[in-house]
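Sample entry (337 residues):
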Amino acid sequence: MTLPVADTQFVEATGVWIVKSLVIFGFIFAVVPLLTLFERKMIGRFQNRYGPNRVGPFGLLQPLADVIKLISKEQSHPRTAAPLLMALAPAISILTAVASLAIIPFGDVREGFGTKYGLYGIDVNIGLLYAFAFGSLAFYGVMLGGWASGSKYSFLGAMRSAAQLISYEVSLALALIGVVMMAGSLSLVDIVKQQHAIWYVVPQFVGLLVFTVTGLAELNRAPFDLPEADAELVAGYNTEFAGMRLGSYLLAEYLNMIVIAGLAAAMFLGGWRGPGPGYLDPLWMILKMLVFIWFFIWVRATLPRFRYDQLMSFGWKVLLPLATLNLLVTAILVTVL
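Predicted structure, serialized as tokens:
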């Protein structure tokens, strides 16, 4: 018995989606532990010390020790907390991060195993809006975690995250709209393809600078880590979280760092484009993402935390006018040329 052509295509597409989903989750659980080790090693070098070097050869088993420690810790919460919502909050953060990672392209469409497949999770014609939508939903994981903890310090950290999101999300979007206007598409795959002649880092260098700074603020990483300022709020929105619930927040943070690095590489550095044969495309994309990740780590090891008034002032008085001016100049040039 043979299936109709439409049913056969549906089965093939379903199989490709399942394989892609497994690859994405495999990528997450393989890369994130290595990324934590890479960050700790790099910060150690920046600060003239060794970093992790006790667990396993060269400290390579340190991520495994960290996971075992988090899994073995007891879950606890204050009497004023909402336990169900505390369990749901980090799950929201992970879900939104994984959904955003699905649109990062690591290569063009390939043919193999009797079917065609793209080296990305999904390619939607509103790809950038898709990323913004899930990036905005990620805020609810932080906000819900702070409120459900029943702690004033956690709630203050969550409110800071809300104010920070409002201050930097607009500038981040404006920094990318210039690229969208030049490419004429919201699809990340199409944007990468449009960079066959010149990478957008050249005409959109100001946009790249704004996106990089606002990306750091979106990640709540130093020097923009005010929502979890340990000197003021103990640990911010995740003060009352322990065990793998805390580990889930940390996992989401590193996933979001990969997403921001992927967006920057695809939007400004030509994505998977690079010299050599086509099978090197994913390697070029990963190397470009590592450049941004290394820069994020460098900034964390170098710059002190801003005061909160400095943070807000920098977002509204510097980044927003700069991103708006870059957008206006881009619109004029695209219209004239």
